Amino acid sequence: MFFSNAVKSSGPLGAGLVQLSHLHTSPNSQAPVPALPEKGGKTRHGIIPEEIFQLLYPKTGVTGPYMLGAGLLTYILSKEIYIINHETFAAACMGTVIIYGVRKFGPDVAAFADKLNEEKVQKAQEVKDLAMTSLAQAVLDEKKEQWRAEGRQMLFDAKRNNVAMLLETNRRERVHMVTNEVKKRLDYQIALQTLHRRMEQEHMVNWVEKNVVTSITPQQEKTSIAKCITDLKLLAKVQQAKATV
After folding, report:
1. Is the pLDDT of residue 5 over 60?
2. Three-class SS string for the chain?
3. CA distances from 68 to 58, 83, 177 (A)
4. What gap in Å lies between CA 172 and CA 178, rounded to an integer?
5. Residues 6+ apart with CB under 8 A from 94
6. pLDDT at 132
7. Crossing angle for the helix pair 50-60 and 64-78, to the nearest 10 degrees
8. Dihedral sign from CA coordinates of 165, 167, 168, 174
9. Of 75-79, 94-98, 166-170, 226-230, where does the model show the most confidence?
10. Whole-prediction pTM value?
11. Confidence band (pLDDT; 50, 70, 90) for 142?
12. How far is Cα 3 from Cα 76, in angstroms, rounded to an integer?
């Protein structure tokens, strides 16, 4: 913007530069360049384009281009704009040789040039195909990497779930270990209390038995033994009576 204002303020030269800059930045300058034709257009007499004849036909008729050429040549010679000298004959000879060479060797040279051109085009096409193949493979690799990047999130989720499950397993193992330890200690306390109770009971039984034994007199012992013998005899008689029956 600053450059444009400075050029506009520099006078006619600046205005011309501004117009030139606008010309180079016009939309037409950014248009794609048309492709060059592979073969030249039609000509007459070897050098005159067919378009000139087609342009003059509507206004001058069929003989118009020839009359224009003949009249122009007559005018140039009559006004001595061009003077015929030895160079003219040398140019005519050279032109004849060139035309003969073109007509004689032109097709072979054109075929050789076309062959070279086809080889160059084929090499360029191979390079293009190779580049397209590599680029297509690069696109496929990029899509695969994108797919892997999308699956990486799933992989991270799976790893996160695995870590969570591992932590939960460790927590449950610790809870189970604590439960077992507490159960063992409770079982120990129960066994200890049971042992105390059993020892107390045994001690009480022994003490009662000892006191009972010590409290029995010899007379009571004899009486008890006699009573037992009597009971045994009575039981023996009952058994014999049952056996005889």
Report:
1. no
2. CHHHHHHHCCCHHHHHHHHHHHHHCCCCCCCCCCCCCCCCCCEECCCEEHHHHHHHHHHHCCCHHHHHHHHHHHHHHHCCCCCCCHHHHHHHHHHHHHHHHHHHHHHHHHHHHHHHHHHHHHHHHHHHHHHHHHHHHHHHHHHHHHHHHHHHHHHHHHHHHHHHHHHHHHHHHHHHHHHHHHHHHHHHHHHHHHHHHHHHHHHHHHHHHHHHHHHCCHHHHHHHHHHHHHHHHHHHHHHHHHHHC
3. 14, 20, 118
4. 10
5. none
6. 93
7. 100
8. positive
9. 166-170
10. 0.37
11. very high
12. 51
The token pair that represents 8 in the structure block:
């506009």
Q: Extract the tokens encoding 166.
A: 């591992």
Average pLDDT over residues 25-54: 73
Written as one letter, the residue type at 157 is D
Place of tokens 């008729």: 61
